[in-house]
Amino acid sequence: MPMTKNAINKKKDMTHNTILNTKKKTALVSLIKPKSKQLPCFSMGFFLGLSTLAMTAQADATTGEDYRIQASAVDVNAPIAALSKLTSLDNTKPLKVTVPKIQPFKTKAGVPVLFVPTTALPIVDIDLRFNAGSARDGSISSTGFGIANMTATMLEQGSKRLDENEFTRAVETLGINLGSSAYKDMLTVSLRSLSDDKHLLPAIDLMTQMLTEPSFDQKILARNKARLLVGLQQQKQDPNSLASLAFNKALYGSHPYAHPSVGTLETVPNITKQQLIDFKNRYLVAANASLAMTGNLTLTQAKKLAEDITAGLPTGQAAPILPEPKPLTKSQYIHIPFPSTQTTVLMGQLGDKRATDPQAQQKQTNFAVGNEVLAGGDFNARLMTEVRQNLGYTYGISGSMSPMLARGPYEIGFSTRNDKARAAIDASLAVINDTLKNGITSTEMKLTTDNLKNSFPMGFASNAGINGLLGMMNFYQLPTSYLSNYVNRIEQVKLLEVNQTLRDTLKPDDFLIVTVGEVNPWDKKVAK
């Protein structure tokens, strides 16, 4: 029997109410904040996926008013109820990580090589590193900061056989990635090429020209210095750069890590061609090199390529051990005036050097777990939760350790409104002190270790990822078991040891704090 007009309208009203209530319940689901720490690799995408699934399930299941609930009946602090019904999670097997099989060997010149064959793609990645970063600039000239950086820049700008344009044309014709860079600890020369002889062999030839026959053309050097000086002038308009420069200078004092790798406005004009030659002859030598290779090669082919790359290098001598910087014994505050509505804050202290023995590596793993809870980059880290979410002082705050050949920095950085800078700094220090006093929880530790283990394989999911790890391990002389023992170190983490390592490492009362902004947060009137 056909429905009457009143019946049709009544059904429409019921349907409309059902949809409205479904939307309300969906909105409530999206507001629920789980207590547990979400894995950064899933973060919001994973959570929104669950919300979408919950929305679909509710829409399908809603048939009348029997399903409706009041907003007051929802515990917004409880985990998502649907998670307990995902029985497939109960059958999930523990993650089994298969790390790349590393094949170590040495060239006739004594250069250590780490090689991993990968046959999935016809690509070869090569990473050659020298203990020749900007920390060595002072050994060439006391006023030559920027020598390592300029050397790395000009290795790519022509050889004795090919001028700059010819060299660049050869690289582009082969379709390879060939470049060099300088950092505080190291100078790197990297190559990515197709693995067939037609491409790889001429690519290796260009790489060896860079290393053994750079032209260091005077006109190109003058052009590079002019461009670099413009960049250094522009750097004065970047508050993050100003904060970083001031932080390193105050933290390291007279240590080689104190000056910027690219040099300064005062030192760059003094760089000469002879200094570049002296730097190359002293540090780009076999005794100071390490090599990593990954790709579609056999071990025999890898050994042949390694010999081709390193045979022309002078034997030379290894670079001397860098001195250890002295930690600050009391807090220090530095403010740099800058016309901006935001204040950039950088705070921290000396951290650790790169650990090579098992005991020190375990300690660094303990700290990494604790610091991820305290200052990790995800929204569940304690600093992010308090300073960003609860207080609304910043869009983001995070902190990390940068271990190097000598003790690297531990830095926490964020930006905030000028009038909130002091309050944000005080709030950050309060979170750090509370964490050191009361420690992280076992739940936080468990979720963090699970995240670190589950995300670990992503580090070697590509040729470039594998080769980057090999290059780092070889440069810092880490054992080949470093990767295979990584998961074991995470599984050996204990709550008491994590909290104790945090207390032993972080000294917030002695923090160096640099601010860049219009208002000095240390002004007594502003603080009041």
TrEMBL record:
<feature type="domain" description="Peptidase M16 N-terminal">
    <location>
        <begin position="123"/>
        <end position="261"/>
    </location>
</feature>
<dbReference type="InterPro" id="IPR007863">
    <property type="entry name" value="Peptidase_M16_C"/>
</dbReference>
<dbReference type="InterPro" id="IPR050361">
    <property type="entry name" value="MPP/UQCRC_Complex"/>
</dbReference>
<dbReference type="GO" id="GO:0046872">
    <property type="term" value="F:metal ion binding"/>
</dbReference>
<protein>
    <submittedName>
        <fullName>Probable Insulinase-like peptidase, family M16</fullName>
    </submittedName>
</protein>
<dbReference type="Pfam" id="PF05193">
    <property type="entry name" value="Peptidase_M16_C"/>
</dbReference>
<dbReference type="InterPro" id="IPR011765">
    <property type="entry name" value="Pept_M16_N"/>
</dbReference>
<feature type="domain" description="Peptidase M16 C-terminal">
    <location>
        <begin position="270"/>
        <end position="446"/>
    </location>
</feature>
<dbReference type="Pfam" id="PF00675">
    <property type="entry name" value="Peptidase_M16"/>
</dbReference>
<dbReference type="InterPro" id="IPR011249">
    <property type="entry name" value="Metalloenz_LuxS/M16"/>
</dbReference>
